[in-house]
Design goal:
single chain, alpha/beta, Rossmann fold, 6-stranded mixed sheet, 10 strands, 31% helix, binds adenosine-5'-triphosphate, binds magnesium ion
Length: 221
């Protein structure tokens, strides 16, 4: 799936001053590419990921997945597309508190696809080292454990595109390697992976490194 980003910008106003959180970004991302985005706090990384996910509307420009424009108004087609084709790992903690780990992961699998994913859930949880937690609730998990559940949830529908906003931010080095290895394998199998990271080791996984600076995205390697 080709991601075609055409001249997107996001303008915000703070203290009566307008500024670009995203400043006219153009980029095509091809199947099988693994992009890592570095950048200072406040540079626009999450804004960019959220626009790509269709969660946030740009002030200008558009994002297309093949022929589907995700920046058009929300409709059933776009939500279904997002649920099936995009594995989104947001920066915050987004697990539903009243559901167990297992239920959190299986929820999106059940939305459109009624088959049970018990085996797949078991497998991905084992790989991420969270299998013993599947009957626990989010409040009883550590930050890094919650992050790994969010990774498992994003992967369970075998999406074509992974959008991950600091997925390894609160992981130790062992779990960081596990997560980045999974992303690398996915890219090698033809999926597209876009990861925001502060982890300098991420550059060992790809040669497509970008830097976000005041809403502008530049390739640095
Ligand atoms: N709703 C909003 N209204 C006004 N300004 C906003 C809004 N959302 C984000 N911003 C501003 O836009 C800029 C980019 O924010 P963003 O969350 O994309 O940064 P980031 O690079 O992800 O930072 P971090 O590394 O801290 O997560 C920041 O200056 C932020 O304060
Ligand atoms: Mg952010």
């Amino acid at each position: 799936m080709l991601i075609h980003i055409e001249d997107i910008s996001k303008e915000y106003k703070r203290n009566d001053e307008k500024f670009y959180a995203i400043d006219h970004i153009n980029l095509d991302i091809k199947e099988g590419e693994f992009l890592v985005i570095y950048g200072k706090s406040g540079s626009g990384k999450s804004t960019f990921i959220n626009i790509l996910a269709g969660i946030l509307k740009p002030s200008d420009g558009s994002v297309k997945y093949d022929s589907l424009k995700i920046t058009d108004g929300e409709d059933k087609k776009i939500s279904e597309f997002r649920n099936k084709q995009i594995g989104y790992i947001g920066q915050g903690y987004t697990l539903l508190p009243n559901l167990t780990v297992y239920e959190n992961i299986s929820l999106s699998a059940h939305l459109y696809d009624k088959k049970s994913k018990e085996k797949e859930i078991e497998e991905v949880c084992k790989r991420l080292g969270i299998y013993k937690l599947i009957n626990s609730y989010p409040k009883d998990l550590s930050g890094g454990e919650k992050r790994r559940v969010a990774v498992a949830r994003a992967l369970i529908n075998e999406p074509e595109v992974i959008l991950a906003d600091e997925p390894t931010g609160d992981l130790d080095s062992e779990n960081t390697v596990i997560v980045l290895d999974i992303f690398k394998e996915l890219a090698e199998s033809g999926k597209t992976v876009i990861v925001v990271s502060h982890d300098k080791d991420a550059k060992n996984y790809t040669n497509l490194i970008y830097q976000m600076d005041k809403g502008k995205l530049t390739r640095i390697s």
